[in-house]
């Protein structure tokens, strides 16, 4: 798939972006060679490039042809190193973009973006525009020219730009220039955060940084176990998830962007640059099934160390360094992607009550116990037992649920199921550690939860599980019930629920997450992870042809780079929402795993909720 240049629109489609990063921050780079989103030095820092949210004042770093050409983007095999190739009648040029990422002291060094322009044939003229705008596009940088480059600064931040280009101009916070690249020639460009003096780019070994970064990613991929049909897509999803882990703490962000709309023009724009317990736990399970355990251990132990009283202090989301104050505000000076305002930073959902987070983290800890370094006695008493008891004391309360509906709290069936599963995981851990006395109350509450869900969450007239006790409609989160082990996948009630979800929530064969009025107005797209959950459930039910057809269709929505947004327009297939989305990539891995498992392939082990499809209380 290629794009024609010059690009004349104000906003590129979300599918026209690739991502690079160093597991502390990232950058989105469009098919026209423009860095349109980057927050420095962390994922949740104010942006220095935000043209994706305001093409006028957001700021960008563009390296693009001056004449008509075609553009294609690919990743170098098994890495997060992005290449953008421009092809015209006169020549072919490739831009290699990456952030240095390798073992050693890289986590303590300032983040950098490296761009290598390589002439592959003929000759091509390109245009450079470098215009960082600090504070989410609010502040124009002051520029100082140095012998080896330029210094961009305001009162709080500094960026230095070094390159092998000689003739560049600076004016009004912007560096510009034109240059030609012939076959065999290279141009180096480096943008560094937090430094005050440019380095001589010709002496800075960018090629060495590239080789180290390639080696880092390929070494990590070599440890992944999946060898099934969708290995290419699974590996790309794994690489993307790894890119979204904030390495200093192990926290995983839901997505690296804010306010990319769920539907253009309707105000459903949220900031996802935080670490949700739920998203992290699901993604850590994806790492587990792929055989990469260190991410889970790092995150879980960070979470434990960061919270001295988890039973009382466990929040549904955290900042990258463990903070819980995530107030929400609007940036009124930005017009938003495709003029879809408001642009929000922070997230008011952080104050919601979502008890499923407690079950999710016990599930993650159980898998850590099985595959990782285990659970110490201290962790058991500080973490497992208090959270299990907290669930017992609070499971009857209503909450906001997985979809974070900003209205009246309800009794969501999905949340009740996770309370059950969390206690089941706590019972397993307690049994393995010899604390059988603790399990008596937990098992009694598990029976109470199941009885209540069957009485109040089952729609007896239509015969399917409902989204909540208060509504008679289903929602797509119910697809997880057999995947986490709440009910057997061949149970008639689950089969009826899946049928109801497909009938009531599907458009053009793609699922919405729910059909109720959530009070926000407007509309949204089909939720990608829900469709991947459907593939997983169909696989467990033995409906493999149906699962395979749906999976092949979903894979096509990843675009040329295999990256998935939060949602997709069921009519146009265009991605919607924050991008790339950890939940969507986790869902792809889960779906591929369940399909291969259903085929009985030897390289796939038992999955999440194993044993629950055999006997609910085993």
The averaged pLDDT comes out at 91
- Distance N to C terminus: 50 Å
User: How much helicity do the residues have?
Assistant: 25-40%
User: What is the CATH C level class of the largest domain, in words?
Assistant: Mainly Alpha
Figure out the total of helices.
15
Secondary structure class reads: alpha+beta
Q: What is the general shape?
A: globular
Give me the Rg, rounded: 25 Å
The strand count comes to 30
Return residue spans where pLDDT drops below 50 for at least 5 consecutive residues.
610-618
- Beta-strand proportion: 15-25%
What is the CATH architecture descriptor of the largest domain?
Answer: Alpha/alpha barrel
How would a crystallographer describe the biggest sheet? Answer: 16 strands, antiparallel
Please, how many domains? 2
Describe the structure.
The longest helix is centred in the C-terminal third of the chain and has 21 residues, at 413-433. The radius of gyration is 25 Å and the shape is globular. The protein folds into 2 domains: 3-200, Distorted Sandwich (Beta-galactosidase, Chain A, domain 5), CATH 2.70.98.10; 222-599, Glycosyltransferase (Alpha/alpha barrel). It contains 15 helices and 30 strands. Helix 4 (277-289) packs parallel to helix 15 (582-599), helix 7 packs antiparallel against helix 8 and helix 14 (544-556) runs antiparallel to helix 15 (582-599). By secondary structure, the protein is an alpha+beta fold. The strands form 7 sheets. The protein has a 16-stranded antiparallel β-sheet that branches. A 3-stranded antiparallel β-sheet has the order 28-29-30.
């Amino acid at each position: 798939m290629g794009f024609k240049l010059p690009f004349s629109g104000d906003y590129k489609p979300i599918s026209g972006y690739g991502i690079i990063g160093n597991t502390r921050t990232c950058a989105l780079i469009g098919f026209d060679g423009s860095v349109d989103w980057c927050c420095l030095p962390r994922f949740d820092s104010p942006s220095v490039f935000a043209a994706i949210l305001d093409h006028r004042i957001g700021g960008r770093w563009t390296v693009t042809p001056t004449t008509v050409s075609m553009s294609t983007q690919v990743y170098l095999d098994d890495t997060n190193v992005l290449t953008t190739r421009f092809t015209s009648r006169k020549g072919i040029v490739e831009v290699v973009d990456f952030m240095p990422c390798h073992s050693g002291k890289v986590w303590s060094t300032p983040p950098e973006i490296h761009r290598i322009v390589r002439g592959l044939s003929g000759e091509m003229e390109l245009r450079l525009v470098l215009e960082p705008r600090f504070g989410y596009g609010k502040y124009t940088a002051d520029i100082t020219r140095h012998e080896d480059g330029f210094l961009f600064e305001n009162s709080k931040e500094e960026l230095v730009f070094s390159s092998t280009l000689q003739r560049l101009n600076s004016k009004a916070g912007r560096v510009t220039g034109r240059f030609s690249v012939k076959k065999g020639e290279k141009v180096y460009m480096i943008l560094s955060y937090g430094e005050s003096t440019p380095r001589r780019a010709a002496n800075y070994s960018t090629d060495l940084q590239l080789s180290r970064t390639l080696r880092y990613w390929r070494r990590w991929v070599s440890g992944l176990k999946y060898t099934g049909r969708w290995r290419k897509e699974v590996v790309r999803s794994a690489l993307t998830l790894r890119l979204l882990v904030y390495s200093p703490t192990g926290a995983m962000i839901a997505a690296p962007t804010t306010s990319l709309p769920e539907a253009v023009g309707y105000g459903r724009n949220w900031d996802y640059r935080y670490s949700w317990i739920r998203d992290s736990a699901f993604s850590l399970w994806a790492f587990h099934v792929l055989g990469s355990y260190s991410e889970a251990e790092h995150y879980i132990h960070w979470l434990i160390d960061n919270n001295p009283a988890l039973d009382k202090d466990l929040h549904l989301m955290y900042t990258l360094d463990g903070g819980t104050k995530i107030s929400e505000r609007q940036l009124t000076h930005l017009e938003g992607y495709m003029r879809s305002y408001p642009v929000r930073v922070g997230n008011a959902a952080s104050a919601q009550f979502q008890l499923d987070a407690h079950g999710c983290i016990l599930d993650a800890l159980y898998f850590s116990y099985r595959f990782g370094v285990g659970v110490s006695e201290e962790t058991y008493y500080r973490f497992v037992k208090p959270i299990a008891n907290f669930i017992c004391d609070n499971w009857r309360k209503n909450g906001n649920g997985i979809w974070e509906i900003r209205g009246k709290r309800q009794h969501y069936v999905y949340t009740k199921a996770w309370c059950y599963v969390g206690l089941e995981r706590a019972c397993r851990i307690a049994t393995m550690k010899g604390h059988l006395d603790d399990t008596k109350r937990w098992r009694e509450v598990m029976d109470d939860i199941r009885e209540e869900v069957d009485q109040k969450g089952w729609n007896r007239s239509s015969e399917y599980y409902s989204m909540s006790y208060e509504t008679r409609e289903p929602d797509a989160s119910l697809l997880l019930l057999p995947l986490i082990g709440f009910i057997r996948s061949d149970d008639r009630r689950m089969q009826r629920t899946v049928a109801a979800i497909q009938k009531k929530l599907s458009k053009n064969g793609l699922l919405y997450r729910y059909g109720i009025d959530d009070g926000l107005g407007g509309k949204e797209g089909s939720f990608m992870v829900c469709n991947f959950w459907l593939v997983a459930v169909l696989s467990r039910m033995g409906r493999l042809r149906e699962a395979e057809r749906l999976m092949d269709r979903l894979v096509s929505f990843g675009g040329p780079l295999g990256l998935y947004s939060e949602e997709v327009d069921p009519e146009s297939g265009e991605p919607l929402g924050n991008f790339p989305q950890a939940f969507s990539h986790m869902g792809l891995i889960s779906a591929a795993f369940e399909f291969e498992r259903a085929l009985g392939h030897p390289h796939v082990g038992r999955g999440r909720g194993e044993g629950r499809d055999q006997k609910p209380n085993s």
